[in-house]
Amino acid sequence: MTTYLKSSPAFDLKKTLRRQGHLFSPMRPWMNRVTRRTLRADAIAALTNAAIVMPQGVAFAMVAGLPPQYGLYTAMITAVVAGFWGSSMVMVSGPTTAISALLFATLSPVAAPESEVFLALALALTILIGLLQVAAGVARLGGLISFISHSVIVGFTAAAALLIACSQLGPALGVQVERGGSVVERLLQVVEHSDQINPTACVIAIASLFSIVLCQHLSRHIPAYLVALAVGGFAGQFFGAEDHGITMFSALPSVLPSFNVPAASIGQIVELIPGAIALAVVGLLEAISIGRAFATRREEKYDTNQEIVGQGLSNIFGGLLSCYAGSGSFTRSGLNAESGAQTPLSAIFAAVWLLLLLLLLAPLVVYIPVPAMAGIILYVAWRLIKFSEIAHILRSKRETTILLATFFVGIIIELEYSIVVGVVLSLVFFLYSSSHPFVGVGAPMLINGERRLRNAELNKLPQCPKISIRRVQGQIFFGSVDELESDFSKISNDHPNQTTVVLILQGIESIDLAGADFLNQQIQRAKRNGGKVFLVVLYPSLISALERFGTLATLGRENLFHSKRDAIAYAIGTVPSTLCASCKQRVFSECSAKAGASRGC
Asked: Which stretches make up the STAS domain (predicted)?
């Protein structure tokens, strides 16, 4: 038969540089979609977005152990850069709960929150995260990043939610406790100081929490976080918060970010690398999952590697402009899409609107009691736990193991280690699955008047005494050859007279040297037993690999097919008529033309 082979293209340096340069080009594909209509829609959507992110940014900065203005800077700068260089049309980036919690968990053991050292390390860590993400985008690792099990993120965010909630119990109750520690340690600290609970603080926290829940129930278009802050502020004034010893927010030093190269030593940067890797992975998983979800929903193209570069650049620029690490925000992105956003200009406009709102409302920050923000953050923590996704994951033992391991490591040991454990477990399960491909033995079955191949064992179908039809589903590589050898040996021992093998590899695109050696051994073994092997291959890339590793030379090109039907018909023709004369199975339609057919069933 005629095969088709694709030669490997020669390395083209200019083409490679042009493709890499496109990732950083200031001329973005979405610019062609900007019209007067989209500008108006983006500006309106951005205003709603800005109203929500102002209190949200303050809350997330507190979770990260940073002054409030850092969350606001991140909400502006990160949104602009990631929106401009990203791939999603509606995703809005900025501070997120998961990133904020993980950043706090990474830095709190080495520096006091809100201290100068903590701030410098936060900015240095953000730049390091950005560099790692840009490198991943340039290396085209988008597919690898998105491979990590979703259960890792669900387990991590659930652990982060508990950590966030426990960190806000003290402020919500008006109790002064030390920051830091695991979930259990934080709870014990609150219990130990339970005699110091301030009823006024509780009322303020409950008022802000109730108002945000009510607003979200009425309409998602209501700026619930802003309303909750206002309610908390009025409650604080009404009950005389300061007179009852309740801490108020300090005035924002500036609403405009400033350029600043973080003063961190080489030793400190090296110490931050493990945390930076965890944060970079979490940030990319958040952004990619959100961007892909909206692209699918809106039937738009989505370039994962471009998104990775956009996120990386936003963190590099952000770290130099007083921002901490950010990622895609599902809340802001969902609201942006629902509000009618059309292009990434909506994210850029949101930053402009946020700056204007800050110039107007920044002086009012000093009237906000800390318990009011604690109530909002408690709501954020609750929303972070995806109960429906957890219920779905619990249906799979493998994904449940990943989820529980990630969760318990996050709440018992350290949050950043939970990501590592989850990723390692995901890889272990993937490698296990890859090293255990499915090998099925097929036989014809009459369906709607036509004979189709089905699993012979499951359907209890008779097989040809001389021909074994085998299908491999999975990968044929060094990690799976031992399992394949075991499966093939068992099939051969169960049916020793089936010396001819039709091996279906239609779903396999590539093979390595160890996999090719395995096929060579099967071909040679069949020849020694007086039979042959016929391969059914669909992808040119696999054919090229078989040519390169010498498998085609061992097999013989006449024994390579693209069609199961052709391969089976050819294989039947090679079985001597003398062997078919006494056969009573006659499982194939072609058997009717063989000797002794009138005696068959």
From this structure: 465-571
Helix (H) or strand (E) holding 241: none
Beta-carbon count within 10 A of 503 CB: 22
Q: Which residues of the chain have pLDDT under 50?
A: 1-8, 599-601
Nearest to 516 by CA among 561, 560, 478: 478
What are the residue ranges of helices labelled H in 385-477?
387-393, 397-412, 415-434, 456-459
Nearest to 228 by CA among 338, 377, 71, 65: 377
Give 573: exposed, middle or buried? Use CB within 10 Å, 0-12, 13-18, 19+.
exposed
What per-residue confidence (pLDDT) applies to 549? 92
pLDDT at 4: 46
- Going across the sheet that includes 533-536, the strands are 450-455, 438-447, 467-473, 500-504, 533-536, 560-561
Q: Which residues contact 125 (CB under 8 A, 6 or more apart)?
A: 103, 106, 107, 272, 275, 276, 279, 319, 324, 325
Alpha carbons 125 and 277: distance in angstroms, whole number? 10
Q: Quote the CA–CA distance of 525 and 169 in Å, as a whole number.
A: 70
Question: In this predicted structure, what is the pLDDT of residue 8?
Answer: 47
Count of Cβ atoms closer than 10 Å to residue 161 Cβ: 23
Q: CA-CA distance, 549 to 545, in Å (whole number)?
A: 6
Closest to 93 measured CA to CA, from 384, 256, 310, 385: 310
Show the DSSP H helices in 97-250 as ranges. Answer: 97-107, 116-138, 142-147, 150-173, 183-192, 199-218, 224-239
196 is written with which tokens? 């110091």
Q: Structure tokens of 447?
A: 């369906």
For residue 362, give the DSSP letter. Answer: G
Say what angle helices 345-361 and 68-85 make with each other, to 10 degrees.
160
- State the Cα–Cα distance between residues 251 and 258, nearest whole angstrom: 17
**How many Cα neighbours within 13 Å face the side chain of 502?**
27
Q: What is the pLDDT of residues 384-434, one digit of tens each?
A: 787 888 898 898 888 999 999 989 988 887 766 787 788 888 888 888 888
Among positive and negative, which fits the CA dihedral 103, 108, 114, 120?
A: negative
Gap between the Cα atoms of 312 and 310, Å rounded: 5
